[in-house]
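Q: My collaborator sent me two sequences in one message, no labels, and asked for predicted structures for both. Can we handle them in order? The first one she listed is below.
A: Yes, handling them in the order given. First sequence, followed by its structure tokens:
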Amino acid sequence: DSATRAVRQASMAGAAALRAACIASILARAAASSPQNRSLPKQLRQSARAADATAEVTATTTEAPNPCDSCPVCVLKPYAPYEPYVGIKTDICAPCALGSQRAWPCHAVPTKCECSSGPAPTPAPTPPPGPAHGLRAWFTSELFQELFPHAGSSSCTAAGFFTHEAFLAAALSFPGFADSGDLARDKRELAAFLGQTSHETSAGWPTAPGGPLAWAYCWREELDCGTCSQYCDTDDQQYPCVAGQNYRGRGPLFLRGNHNYGAFSEAAFGDKMTLLEDAAQVAHDPVLSFRSAIWFWMTPRAPKPSCHDVMMGTWQPSQEDRQLGRAPGFGMTTNIINGGVECNVSTAAAVENCVAFYKRSAGILGVSVGEEA
């Protein structure tokens, strides 16, 4: 409705100032750790110019009004974008009643909560706990914390956004993801996924506390692409660009381009225009953000296989693939995700960074990886 659109526009207007403040904080901390600014990663050095240009701007945030400020019962809005919460946190909006909580999701954009028109629901009896299945059986919050010790750091623009709970909620939409029943294979697939997403979202620098690989899941969206107009393919009539939108990289795998936003929107909402008209949702909703990455990971794009099939061993290379050195394993996932830039250049820093994150993730998960992969 018009009120929601107004809130979204106001939120986007405040985003640039917020990013500038976060970037300035990261730069200050990095400078304290290392006086050699040239050791900072490329993204931070490029972003420094934007932070300097906005040094006189007072960073403010704009949030949606809490729709439940004046009602005693607040419930989750019953429509498709938030179905991953069903069975997990059906009472996620309850603390927003009477304005008693200011945290997410009470002021989320777009709004996720609404006043209940009926009496307070009677909670269903809590069933006795049963055995965990799939990822939940072994991918614990402790492992997540060990993998991403600084994901909640105030120095990161994604501070507190990428969480263990949001990841598991998103994974429910993809039952086969890291859940083949072969624990070693499942751990290896998860390590590969975390390796690629860590590479995309890392803010680590050579002298960073804990090492550069400890600063993954720090960015929730791409910051150094200017207006990001290069991600609008005006020839794509199936998923057309919408005026005023940019399709910069967002989410753990930095979903980019109007084609990917439109295709993911169809999969997530049943409507391609939902994200084509409001692409920033991918950087505002943590479950949707993780879903965008897992969807990209699980979806084949002919002639490319899916990253999932590659890591699970269900993809078999053709004769042409073999001649070009394509084989099942982690290297092929890089080819699928960003092969046009990173493949056939074995000494590229980006490739080495991906491999380092993959090996680190596998080590923490307790699974071996082959050098040939």
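Q: And the one she listed second?
A: Here it is, processed independently of the first:
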Amino acid sequence: MRRDDDARRGGPTTVAVLGLGLIGGSLARRLARQGVTVTGYDSSVETRALAADAGIWVVEDVESLCASAPDVLVLAVPLRAMRPVAGEVARHLPATTVVTDVGSVKGPVREVLEGCGLGDRYVGAHPMAGTEESGFAASSAGLLDAARWAVTVTDRTRPERLATVLALVTGAAGGRAFVLTDDVHDEAAALISHVPHAFAIELLNLVSAAPVRGVALALAAGSFRDGTRVGRTDPRRTEAMLTENAGWVAPALRLAARDLEALATALEENAATTGFFDRADDVRATWQPQGAAAVAPVPDGSRGGVGAAGTERLSVDLGGPEWFTELVELSVAGWAVVAVHGDMVELAREGDGGSGRPSR
């Protein structure tokens, strides 16, 4: 039996995590807590020591990490380090290992991995979780609890390798997954993550340069705190994130700048501003922040229908010829993968029934 088939029975049992910062460290902690055999490596001696003290089995170099022959290797390094790290991994990793990552940009990462020969076993992944802190010391086994993940594929992705990553995400990692193309992920991430980082930093910049800076910061409370939270993280990490996704971030920033310029003009001219403030009424009425509503697990054997509290459920067969189109269309329509049973991927969506499967 192939390793891919073994890994799909209840999810991968051995995982290597390369990079033990906030996300990599949190994932390693959680997987180890769930009984997965985890091997970790980080280029920082101090980080390796902290991880070892926390009970993670740590090795001294990338070659040793790859030699552990894990079911899955997770690349959890900064975007700026991906190319040299991936090149070293490609020299040592067994052909049986599936490669994934946790980065916030997918297109550029796939290009790097394809360039070093790992593209055929790469399945992208991005957990939508984090804090303004960084490093292993800030990591937590609970950070990824019930997290939403984006898992990215192309029409060339081998379905058994996708199933391995989905089984990891929905199993020991404790999340649910939206299966997307790299472009859909990167556009969405620009809107809900990267542009907000830019806005948060600009709020800090505005106050930093203001003549009333001192009293403004003394008066700052919840609104400023929440609006600038992600702006207080490592600026080099944020800069790399926006730069790598510039193709989607730049147009979104220009649209925002246009809207804010129009608002400023309307305010100066005492003109109507209702359109600006009411445009997102539908989002305010329907969107719930992450954690406010969880997608319930799908019982074994469920193949469709409506579950408790109006949660719709259905399945997609990864052995079918249209699995790629089906999964991506369903995920774009709001369906999340919540379990994997062999070739069957189980999905769920909360709501009042909506439009069901998207039409072709």
